[in-house]
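Dear colleague,

Following up on Tuesday's group meeting, I ran the structure prediction for the two-component complex that the binding team flagged. I've pasted the input sequences exactly as they went in, so you can double-check that nothing got truncated or mislabelled along the way. The structure tokens for the whole assembly follow below. Feel free to forward this to whoever is handling the docking comparison.

Inputs:
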Amino acid sequence: MPEAPLLEVAGLRAGYGAIEVLRGIDVAVGAGEIVAILGSNGAGKSTLNNVLSGLLPLAAGSIRFDGRDIAGARSETIVAAGLVQVPEGRRVFPNLSVLDNLILGSYRRGRARRAQGLERVFATFPRLAERREQRAGTLSGGEQQMLAIGRGLMAEPRLLILDEPSLGLSPLLVEEMFTLIRRLNTDGLAVVLVEQNVVQSLVIAHRAYVLENGRVALSGPAASLRADPALRRSYLGM
Amino acid sequence: MSQLPIVVPSVLNGLTTGAIYALVALGLTLIYGVLHIINFAHGSLLMLAMFGVFFLHKLAGLDPYLALLVVPPACFVAGYALQRGVIARASHGKDHNILLVTLGIAIAIENVAIYFWRSDTRTLDLSYAFDTVNLGVALVALPRVVAFAGALVVAGGLWLFMARTDLGRAIRAVAKERQGARVVGIDVEHVFAMSFAIGTACVGVAACLLMPTFYVTPQVGHSFVLIAFTVVVLGGMGSFPGALAGGLIIGVTESLCGLFLGESLGQIGIFAIFIAILLLRPSGLLGHRA
């Protein structure tokens, strides 16, 4: 693990009302890393995500991003600091054009270099350039996922959290998505990949955490987790 | 064809009244589009703005058109404070609570107004109130022409604002996808309050354009907000072009019904249209089908 992590989560507890979902989570992400957060449905992956993005309050623990304490900060402060989430279910603005969706990606951060940002996103996703005037609600699922990622990139993130980016995509598109994530990372972007797609996530990630019942059950370099007998049994059915 | 000489002025008068309806409806439809509630306090805020214009003229000698520099900004600030300080706090994020809170605010404002100003009807006495403009086909009162032009300018400006500015885009984004808006760092509570503020500023403009020819009483908001609600439904809930077109249609309908059925029956046409729209095209003329 790098010496000064970009994101450092310690003893994180959170939940909904009286129901505790996260029961003490420690996670660290270094600059330039792809870190996968794996786990079955209900393990607490999305809750962790929402706490990190300031959408859900935390009950206890600390979150440091880039040396700053962001635990309990408002979502706009967290985005302004460069921690940007591409949410599960895309959450694009269906009534706005593709272009307006992307522009709003730089609402809080990256506004000064908006034109360059748009150019970069359109170069990455030529499909979006073709459909810039089209309403986002009329795009296909794969295109909406590209738009959601493009919108996230418009904020010039220092750390991008991708929540289930492969959900609902065809196998071919899933392949494309993972290639894209690796490319973004090669360009220097740190990525947290929250996925149910364990096999492919472990292929591209540097390290991974496996959540079970709101706790970190396993963690380590992706390569050694791929070979871990316990993980192979529970996720890969081997 | 012998009726043409009276029909044309009647249509023109209807268009000018309709422009004011459109202005009130624009504010209502903006707030509806974002907060998903009918703002019952809209009419009483219009009434307060009209009293503001009235007293600025009576006490400070300020012309109603110059009051455009004072009253709409004051309404903007009041709208922001009302939403952020009262409505958001009292409703705990539940839409039906917001509805009741705005109703409560309407009742409170109106009764305070009655307490201070009684139910007397007040009008301004302006030198230009009876000036007319010759439009070729008919003579139209100058203040009505100004009101028409003013409403169109505001509607156009609002449209540009919504289409071209970041805040306008954020307002449209929050209207449909609040979670997505939070994820890109939009302060959703601020956007709610800004929408309410802009909607209230619209009635501020309407008040300035109305007062040269209209009267003010503590109950004056009722008739406007009821018609504005009809306009919003006619045009399509949340649609700006719909509010503008709906306002003009309703204004002309009222005027023509008044001409042919008698002044006191002028509003029959409005509600006939309202019922017809609900039956035939519930999403409104320019609204999106749910």
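The mean pLDDT of chain A is 92.

Cheers,
M.
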